[in-house]
Amino acid sequence: MKYLLLKHYRGNPAPAGDATPMDRWAPEEVDAHVQYMVDFAKRLEETGEFVDSQALSPDGAFVRSDGPGRPPVTDGPFVETKDLIAGWMVIDVESWDRAVELAGELSAAPGAGGKPIHEWLEVRPFLTEMPNGTE
Amino acid sequence: MNQELLRELVPAVIGVLVRRGADFASAEDAVQEALIRALETWPAEPPRDPKAWLVTAAWHKFVDAARSEASRRGREVAVDAEPAPGPAPAADDTLRLYFLCAHPTLPTNAAVALTLRAVGGLTTRQIATAYLVPEATMAQRISRAKRRIDGLPLDRPGDLATVLRVLYLVFNEGYGGDVDLAAEAVRLTRQLVALTDDPEVAGLLALMLLHHARRASRTGPGDRLIPLAEQDRTRWDTGLIAEGVGILQAALARDRLGEYQAQAAIAALHADAPSADRTDWVQIVEWYDELLRLTDSPVVRLNRAVAVGEADGPQAGLKALTDVSPELPRYAAVKAYLHEKGGDLGRAADLYAVAALAATSVPERDHLTRQAARVRQA
Asked: What's the CA gap between B355 and B336, in Å, rounded?
């Protein structure tokens, strides 16, 4: 079963750990955090559970059609109060419990002072392409 | 036979089929199918004459496809299953393929894909993996590109500038899947140097070799980006540097300067410096002035500001930066660096943090975040 682990720039509940922004950590703490992420993805590749991981720029806009023959309307940049997605990881695992276990590990990435951030990650099951059961 | 040798045969085999009367799109499809077959069967049964094997296999694929197309349309088409051998292969066949695949009417990503398949001899799957798109998407991109250039004459010299741009884009993609795209771009550019007589092609090859020489030192553990000034210069590939410099010098001696030669000249000056602080920044600024004259590119203007900052001090660099649009992705990063050099650490740290948000790649974002953290601690 595939699950999306969604990381937010903002809009998620405040982390249980230290929320100091990354550019105010010690440089070696930044390195440790990045290494943790790299190692985590590598380990999931080895267990055959990794599918994809992408990071998003905070830039962008909302876009909608304004009717035929007219250029689309954009609404952006995003306002400060809005929920903003930072990136995701897709995993393919045995069960919901395993997805939760892995999200918990990812959330424990080290932050300021080397202590786990305990940030909130959103975990969402994929809908499958086709119904599984018999008709 | 290794895959690279097999790949080298692909453009020539397409050329043979086209000279026997196949249209480019069908010939290219047939050779791709023969190539996939070769990859499957050659490890167990290597042919005595690989090129003849590929020509025969591809011609049969082409004939089969033409017959089924003809019967689908209910028409008789005469195709000889075993044609007389065409005229002797001309080196020009391959050159024409470069021009056709990078035709200026094609979207860039399609030109890149088609070049890698028809000139580079990569399979659709390898290209799709390298560019992280589904194989079906890549197959469609390639067949749409071929429909777009359908009927264009193969016998006219094309636009060399777009060919060079496509090759440089492939080079900058680096590693993708199991294919080393940078090495592939070097190979294709090397081959193009042998087919053309333009110092800019040599300039591009020199630029690639000089960058390639620094590859091992450019990243640390966890894909961490290591900036030029901090790279371990003992890990630079001196053989590639010597080759790049030699090619560049021969190109410059022909006195037809272009942007790739100028960029290679800058790369050569970096490669020549025994340490970051012994870099000849004054000469580098002069080359940036040449580049600006040739291209008037905003990115060149931005990079020139860094060089001016090194040659004449951070205040001069910041002054040069006033000519540059703040909209450029790396603008804040350059400004941060110049402020740091000038001793304004608070401002530098804030700008590095802003630059991290504007970064266009993950390693760059992490690097700039680390820079902010480092400067705040200082």
From this structure: 8
Q: How many helices (H) and strands (E) does chain B have?
A: 18, 4
CB contact under 8 A, A22 and B357: no
Dihedral-angle region of residue A43 (phi above 0 means left; psi in -120 to 50 means alpha; beta otherwise): alpha
Residue of B nearest to A54 (CA): B362
Q: Does A80 touch chain B (CB under 8 A)?
A: no
**Using CA atoms, how far apart are residues B71 and A18, in angstroms rounded to an integer?**
71
Q: For residue B118, what is the DSSP state?
A: I
Cβ-Cβ contacts under 8 Å, B222 against chain A: 31, 34-35, 38-39
pTM of the predicted structure, to 2 decimals = 0.90
- Pick from A95, A67, A83: which is nearest to A120 by CA? A83
ipTM for the whole complex: 0.86
Q: Is A29 on the interface with B (CB under 8 A)?
A: yes
- Tokens standing for B277? 């602080």
Q: Where are the beta strands (DSSP E) in B118-173?
A: none
Contact B223 A38 (CB under 8 A): yes
The answer to whether B350 and B375 are in contact (CB under 8 A) is no
- Chain B interface residues (partner A, CB cutoff 8 A): 221-224, 349, 352-353, 356-360, 362, 365-366, 369-370, 372-374, 376-377
Q: In A, which residues are within 8 Å of B364 by CB distance?
A: none
A34 contacts chain B (CB < 8 A): yes
Return the closest-CA partner of residue B68 out of B28, B26, B40, B6.
B26
pLDDT at B69: 83
Mean pLDDT, range B255-275, rounded to an integer: 97
Is 60 exceeded by the pLDDT of residue B209? yes
d(CA B194, CA B95): 10
